[in-house]
Inverse folding.
């Protein structure tokens, strides 16, 4: 497995507060890396550094072995896509047109038919083909999230950075999104996904990076990172990790005070 | 490393050929644009023939053909002079100013990511007018007949820059922030103009009144030539950014992720907006609501894609001003209504209607 993206010794501060410190992370082709951690741990900040939105004060991010700053914007657009947490579109573009915008970096490189195929496939995969003609601004939160994801998929990049792609979604669509992430990984992409549902991460991720207060507390295979004591410490809430009765996949639950019998 | 091909999806598409979002809409766009052009041509010819001295359509066409060395014939001395020295410069100026305002409105709404951005609403027109008024009142003529245009342009550019810097956050402009910025800029510019008027003589005051009412009655070929380079440059540059403006609707960050150099585009387009607006303001004064209403109407009719919206707004703006100017000088003939008054008179109720309609449809503008 080759490292698609490497971050080394990343430090980032804003408003006099250190948001990231000494973060090392490698994203390999073919894997799903889940980025976990409590609110304010620096997950979104890290994602924007990895995407090249923010230049780290310390350290370096390399994509395909070259520093991010050395890539032209259009080159980057063909290599990595980022799904943001919020999905706003200023004007009532139809959903299909929003997805088609994801093809913009490939203008002149791909035929109109290839573009159209990518748009159609992405919308079908995210279960939003039926929304094609609806204005994006009239869609519900979950529908917007799926159309936005379809746009990212249509961008057809080797690196996918997804910031809470399941936040607005129902149970079925959460599973769908992570299944898509798995398909992309199987096709050779690297996928970084920020999640809050630890059980969801346990079920789908190959590796987990656990962030706390801007530092990576643990990076490793899913089973190793999802440790009850570690999670209890990081989330500042007692956590128990159970094994699924069938298959033994970890199920992470917060401990809840029980009524006395 | 090669880019991976889109993986086969587990879920097959629901229908063999999913509906294209813009199938029927795309079909009607060229038709709409052609209709606008035809209406513009019709109104331009009508305006050239209508007035105290009526000129039949056949004579107009003959004279146009004659001047273009395509046959036809020259008219008698009086109609020829009325047509070429009075009517045509005015029609052409209305066309240029309208196209500039319509296109600037569409661009501005795209750059600000907000359907309420319009040169007059956010104070750019009055900012430009301050430059022009200062020139008139202080008697500056360093650049000859271009001084007023240049001053209006410089002041317009400065105002656009200030409004932009003040009103944006995170790649968008909130409606409240934008409107409050406009209120403040308009108030400030009004005060500056008032201050200048306080020191001005009578001749300067009457010239300044022209700015505030907005009119094309001073039209001449010299004015046409003064606007032409700015308007032509702006109208030529704008469509090159159509696709990138579509992407900007996603927000600054997503647009950047798609390879758009947002900072550069912003600087170019804001300069273009200032160019178009200031050129229009310099020769016609403040003509409000054209840049707001025209792109809005077209977006309702044919969707928000800028590849259509930018040229259509230019043609639509030209149509509105040519027709508006015709109305301004014929409705109360022999007196003439100020064009800016007329557009605001019709534009404002339309604006109310837009606000109410949008609120009903989608709970207001974010």
């Amino acid at each position: 497995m080759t490292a698609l993206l490497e971050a080394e010794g990343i430090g980032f501060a804003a408003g006099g507060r250190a948001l990231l410190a000494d973060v090392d992370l490698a994203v390999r082709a073919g894997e799903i890396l889940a980025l976990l951690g409590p609110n304010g741990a620096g997950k979104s900040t890290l994602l924007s550094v990895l995407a090249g939105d923010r230049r780290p004060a310390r350290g370096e991010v390399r994509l395909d072995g070259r520093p991010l700053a050395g890539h032209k914007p259009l080159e980057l657009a063909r290599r990595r896509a980022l799904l943001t947490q919020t999905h706003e579109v200023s004007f009532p573009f139809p959903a299909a047109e929003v997805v088609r915008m994801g093809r913009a970096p490939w203008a002149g490189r791909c035929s109109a038919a290839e573009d159209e195929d990518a748009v159609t496939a992405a919308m079908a995969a995210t279960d939003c083909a039926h929304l094609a003609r609806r204005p994006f601004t009239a869609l519900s939160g979950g529908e917007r999230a799926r159309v936005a994801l379809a746009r990212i998929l249509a961008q057809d990049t080797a690196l996918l950075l997804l910031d809470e792609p399941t936040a607005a979604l129902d149970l079925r669509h959460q599973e769908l999104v992570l299944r898509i992430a798995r398909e992309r990984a199987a096709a050779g992409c690297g996928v970084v996904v920020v999640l809050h549902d630890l059980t969801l991460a346990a079920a789908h991720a190959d590796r987990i990076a656990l962030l706390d207060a801007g530092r990576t507390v643990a990076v490793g295979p899913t089973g190793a990172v999802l440790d009850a004591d570690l999670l209890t410490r990081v989330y500042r809430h007692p956590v128990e990790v159970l094994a699924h009765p069938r298959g033994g996949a970890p199920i992470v639950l917060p401990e809840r005070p029980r009524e006395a019998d | 490393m090669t880019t991976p091909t889109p993986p086969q999806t587990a879920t097959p598409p629901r229908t063999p050929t999913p509906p294209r979002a813009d199938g029927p809409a795309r079909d009607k766009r060229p038709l709409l644009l052609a209709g606008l052009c035809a209406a513009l041509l019709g109104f331009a010819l009508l305006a050239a023939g209508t007035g105290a001295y009526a000129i039949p359509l056949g004579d107009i066409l003959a004279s146009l053909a004659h001047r273009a060395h395509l046959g036809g014939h020259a008219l008698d001395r009086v109609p020829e002079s009325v047509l070429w020295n009075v009517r045509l410069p005015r029609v052409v100026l209305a066309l240029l100013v309208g196209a500039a305002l319509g296109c600037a409105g569409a661009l501005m709404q795209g750059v600000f990511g907000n359907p309420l951005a319009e040169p007059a609403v956010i104070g750019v027109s009055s900012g430009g007018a301050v430059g022009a008024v200062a020139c008139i009142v202080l008697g500056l003529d360093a650049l000859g007949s271009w001084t007023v245009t240049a001053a209006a342009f410089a002041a317009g550019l400065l105002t656009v820059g200030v409004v932009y810097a003040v009103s944006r956050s995170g790649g968008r402009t909130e409606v409240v922030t934008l409107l409050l910025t406009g209120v403040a800029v308009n108030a400030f510019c009004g005060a500056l103009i008032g201050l200048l008027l306080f020191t001005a003589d009578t001749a300067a005051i009457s010239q300044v009144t022209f700015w505030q009412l907005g009119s094309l009655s001073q039209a001449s070929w010299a004015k046409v030539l003064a606007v032409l380079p700015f308007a032509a440059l702006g109208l030529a540059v704008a469509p090159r950014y159509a696709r990138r403006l579509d992407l900007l609707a996603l927000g600054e960050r997503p647009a950047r992720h798609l390879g758009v150099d947002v900072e550069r585009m912003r600087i170019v387009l804001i300069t273009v907006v200032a160019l178009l607006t200031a050129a229009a303001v310099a020769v016609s004064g403040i003509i409000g609501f054209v840049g707001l209403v025209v792109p809005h109407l077209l977006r309702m009719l044919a969707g928000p894609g800028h590849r259509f919206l930018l040229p259509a707004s230019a043609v639509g703006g030209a149509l509105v001003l040519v027709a508006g100017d015709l109305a301004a000088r014929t409705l109360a003939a022999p007196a003439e209504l100020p064009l800016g008054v007329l557009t605001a008179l019709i534009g404002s109720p339309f604006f109310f209607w837009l606000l109410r309609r949008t609120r009903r449809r989608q709970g207001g503008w974010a």
Observations:
- Chain B touches chain A at residues 1, 3-15, 18-22, 25, 113-115, 172, 243, 246-251, 253-254, 256-261, 299, 303-305, 362, 366 (CB under 8 Å).
- The CA atoms of residues 171 and 253 of chain B lie 7 Å apart.
- The radius of gyration of chain B is 22 Å.
